[in-house]
Predict the 3D structure of the following.
Amino acid sequence: NAGVTQTPKFQVLKTGQSMTLQCAQDMNHEYMSWYRQDPGMGLRLIHYSVGAGITDQGEVPNGYNVSRSTTEDFPLRLLSAAPSQTSVYFCASSYSMRVESPLHFGNGTRLTVT
Amino acid sequence: DQQVKQNSPSLSVQEGRISILNCDYTNSMFDYFLWYKKYPAEGPTFLISISSIKDKNEDGRFTVFLNKSAKHLSLHIVPSQPGDSAVYFCAASGSGGSNYKLTFGKGTLLTVNP
């Protein structure tokens, strides 16, 4: 049981490049989400999904796209990377979207945009 | 506007003593609170939670206290162990009780010295 798996662990991009951060969970969780963590700031929600085929924007969605074609996978796409997107990205899932269902986080992807 | 505040960026305690981590919130609609622990190079992990209908919840060495009138909660770790050294995030849910309405604090780095 791997839990939430994020790949890659590290990535360096040049401004304007695109890439996809992968997230997969093997716990059959309905709810999945992406956060970014910046120095001196708490975790901020980028996008979330309450089930396959359903996605919505969080607090800081600009510059990111998501899709949820399967229960297991929730990739995050950067279409045209900007230095402001340098951050550590965490994918998280939970059994349900209810807050009483705690989030399970992956180990993060550290992204640097030059 | 920071709705969940962890005013102490860091805290250092001796092994065996009590660690007290504090969290203040400004939104009176928050009614569910959680603490997550994060080790370096790992994702946050759920530690303990409390609903606003309670003022205390304990799980082993960890106890969370909620003071609704003061909009304040605290996490007590007794006795503290070196393995407790980590960043602790406080999180609160808005109305509706959904994970996509979670607001995280900036975190407090706890160091437990042997």
In short: The mean pLDDT of chain B is 95. The interface with chain A takes residues 4, 32, 34, 36, 41-46, 49, 89, 93, 97-107 of chain B (CB under 8 Å). The two ends of chain B are 38 Å apart (CA to CA). Residues 25 and 71 of chain B are 5 Å apart (CA to CA).
